[in-house]
Amino acid sequence: MKHHLAFLAALMLVASASAWATVGSDESDTRLVVAGRTSAADQDVIPSPSDDASVLVDSTATDTTVTVIDSSTLDDRYIPADEFMYADNHRVTFLGNRPLKESDVSTLPLIGMGAGYAGIFVALHINQANAWWKDHTGGWHVIEDLQYARFADKFGHFYTAYIMSALPADMLMESGMEQTTARWIGAGLGLLYNTYVEVNDGYAAHWGFSPSDEIANFVGSAYFILQYYYPFLENFTPRWSYVPSHWVNDQSITDRPSTFIDDYNSTTFWLAVNVNNLLPKSFDAYWPDWLMVSVGYGIRNYEVTTPSGQPADVTRRFMVGLDYDWVKILPTSSFGFLNYVRQWLNYIRLPGPTLEFGDDGVKFALAYPFAIVIPF
Q: How far apart, in whole angstroms, are the C-alpha atoms of residue 159 and residue 116?
C-alpha cells in the first residue's frame, strides 16, 4: 500500500506544481489584449459576469469607456472539444484543459510537469531496486522468459508501457505542446522508462534482459499511438486491477520480496470494451452508455512454495465481467485535475459482476474478486 501512496503523492506533486506554474506563467493567457485609446498600462481587463466575455476598462479617460470583448476568440488557439475525444467521451489534459492547435510551450508548467514525471520515475526505480536489483547485480546477460508467470508478466509490460506513455503525453499537452508531437514524445518516454527497467534486469543476477519483455514494452507504447491514428481502437482500453491476494484468501508470494508491480497473484489485466459505442444507435434505449464489458487474465500461486517445500502449480484464470465508464458516471468538476482523475479511473478495473473460468474451475462473483462467490 505504501507504494500506491507514493505513486499517488507523486501525481499530486505534479498537479500542484503544474497548477502553480500555470498560474504563475500564463496569467496573460487569461486576458485579451485589445488596442484602445490608451496604453496597455492604463487599461485593466476584468472578468465579465458572463463566461463568454471580458470587459476592457479605460481607467484614465475622463468618461470611462467599457468595451465588452468576446473571449470565445481565445478558443481559436485550442482544439475544439468535439475533436479532443477518447471514443465517445470528451478528453481533458492533466489539469482539465484541451491542447493547443499549435505548440506554444510554457516554461514553468513544462518544468513542473517534468519534475513530477521524474519524481514518479525515481519513486518507481527505488521500489523496483529494493525488490529486484539491490545486492543482486551481476554481468550483462539475456534470458528469454516468454512463458514466465504464464504470460501475465507480458501483459504487465504492455500495460505499464501504455500508461507511462499516456501520462507524459497529457502532461506535455498541458504544458502547451500540440497533440501529435506530445503523443509521440509521450510514447517515446513510456518506452524509454520500460526499456530502462529491462536493461537493469539485464544486470540482475536473478533476472536478465528479456527480448519478449521489450517487445511487450514496444507494443504497449505503440498501441497508445495507434489509438490516435485509428480511433476505433479507443473502444478497447487496457485496464488493471490490484487486490492483495490474502484479502481474498489466495496465496501470496513466498519465494522473494515483491512489489505491487509484479505481484501477479494480486493483479489482473483487463481489456474494457465500450459496447455502447460499438452498437447501432437503435440500441441506445436498451444498453446504458456507461456500461462496459471487460475481459481479463490473471494467475494464482505464482512463486508460492507449499508447506512440503515444493513450488505450487501456477493456475490461470480468465474473466468476463461488467465494467463502468467513469467519465459518464461521475459528474464534471469545476476543478480541472479532478476531471483528469475521473478520466484516469477508466484505466483501472474496480470490482464488479464477473464470471471466472480456468484451471480452478468456474465461479461467479458479484464484486470480483471479493465474495459473494458462487462456485459451479
A: 20
Convert the pLDDT of each residue in 232-291 to its tens digit.
999 999 999 999 998 988 888 877 666 777 789 999 999 999 999 999 999 999 999 999
Q: How many CA atoms lie within 13 A of 58 on its CB side?
A: 15
Q: Cβ contacts of residue 128 below 8 Å, gap of 6+?
A: 197, 200, 259, 261
Terminal C-alpha separation, the chain: 33
CA-based diameter of the chain, in Å? 95
Cα-Cα-Cα-Cα dihedral sign, residues 155, 160, 161, 167: positive
Q: At what angle do helices 179-202 and 152-174 cross, to 10 degrees?
A: 140
Quick one: 51 exposed, middle or buried, by C-beta within 10 A (0-12, 13-18, 19+)?
Answer: exposed
- Chain centroid to Cα 194, Å, comes to 15
What pairs with residue 239 in β-bridges? 270
At 249, give phi and psi (nearest 5°). Answer: 65, 30
pTM equals 0.80
φ/ψ of residue 349, rounded to 5: -105, 115
Residue with cell 468456474: 362
Q: How far apart are CA 141 and CA 73, in angstroms?
A: 58
Cell of 224: 497508445
Strand order in the sheet with 236-242: 236-242, 267-273, 291-300, 315-324, 352-358, 361-368, 370-375
336: how many CB neighbours lie within 10 A of its CB? 19
